[in-house]
Design brief:
Distance between the termini: 40 Å
CATH topology: Rossmann fold
Strand order of the largest sheet: 3-2-1-4-5-7-6
Number of strands: 7
Strand content: 25-35%
CATH superfamily: Vaccinia Virus protein VP39
Order of helices and strands: HEHEHEHEHEEE
Number of helices: 5
CATH class: Alpha Beta
Number of domains: 1
Largest sheet: 7 strands, mixed
Shape: globular
CATH architecture: 3-Layer(aba) Sandwich
Radius of gyration: 15 Å
Structural class: alpha/beta
Length: 181
């Protein structure tokens, strides 16, 4: 995987083969960040990266100037890899080894962007828990955004707080936000 833009643009990061991950493709990542770039100043936001895997999304935010990034994953190998990569690149990424749903249930911190990339084989019920926890526990700042990455074969449009989806190849990003007042 490579970093698309920012301070570390073009840098390649090689994740260990034994990690149970499916990194977001460069094409999908570039499209996502083009959308976000039109909405946010990256140095003014806070990011929660759920099911962070290799840390691919966290590195992209850090490269673009985001200083407040928290990556959460249940796999110790993933957390260890993210910590080492963040240290090697001097990136401000903090990590938490935790089941994502337990973390969401107990967290009191708010974020501008929450990005979740759960396993593509999640059932709709498991996918539905993500926006449920995020919005019921008020984990997004005002004008915050929840982005859930999933397979193009999964339809999240009936879930609460759903706004829109964008597909790139086999990847789809569904965007969720609180209703505007």
């Amino acid at each position: 995987m490579r970093i698309i833009s920012g301070q570390f643009k073009g840098r390649k990061i090689q994740a260990p083969k034994q990690l149970p991950v499916r990194p977001t493709t460069d094409m999908a990542k570039e499209a996502l960040f083009n959308i976000l770039n039109n909405r946010y100043y990256f140095d003014d936001i806070s990011v929660l990266d759920l099911f962070s895997g290799t840390g691919n999304i966290s590195y992209e935010f850090a490269s673009r100037g985001t200083e407040n990034i928290l990556a959460v994953d249940a796999n110790f190998g993933c957390i260890k890899f993210i910590n080492k990569t963040a240290e090697d690149f001097d990136m401000p990424i903090k990590t938490v080894k935790s089941d994502v749903f337990k973390f969401l249930e107990n967290s009191k911190q708010q974020f501008t962007i929450i990005f979740a990339d759960p396993p593509y084989d999640f059932g709709l019920e498991a996918f539905a828990k993500i926006p449920e926890f995020v919005f019921n526990n008020k984990l997004l700042e005002e004008d915050g955004l929840l982005i859930v990455e999933h397979s193009k074969h999964t339809d999240l449009s009936k879930l609460d707080y759903y706004n829109l989806s964008k597909s790139y190849g086999g990847n789809t990003f569904s965007f969720f936000e609180a209703a505007k007042k």
